[in-house]
Fold:
Amino acid sequence: MSEKILNSNKIRAKKMMLLFSLLSITMTFAGLTSAYIVSKGRPDWLVDFELPELFYYSTIVIVLSSITIQIAKYNLNKNKTKSDVLIWLFTTLLLGILFCVFQFYAFKSLIDKGYYFAGAQSTITTSFIYVLTFLHALHLIAGIIVLIVLLFNTINNKYQLNKLGFQLGVTFWHFLDILWIYLFLFFYFFG
Structure:
């Protein structure tokens, strides 16, 4: 009985650690987007700035990746074959990488238009966009590492008895998806 309680406490602790991490990330982005709104009153704020078209495509890609990882989780929970889980996890990984590629080229298009992060040719508007999207990209790289761990552990049958690690990885990936949608809509409506 005490082992079952100990195991239950471990599960709860791991979920709480993830929750605190996600709340910390949320507060960081809330603070930065609040500063963005406050800065809109500055006289040097760009009023005719348009988001790069690739941000639209990357949004579609990351939403699709959330769907594919959810299918992988469904297949794992239904005890489908390992290949049924792996194919959807691998697809999620590819979509995550494609998202990063779109982000890279979106930054390149900003630079091509003369919008820089810092320096004489930068503006406060573009600096905020660079910081927010780059910070999200860093978290997405962490998410890609999580996906690689999920793939490796699935290949090695680590989730046969205990699916908690898989569930936490899926939760983190969904969080990254929701965070990007928030940023995209924020830029779209407040940009």
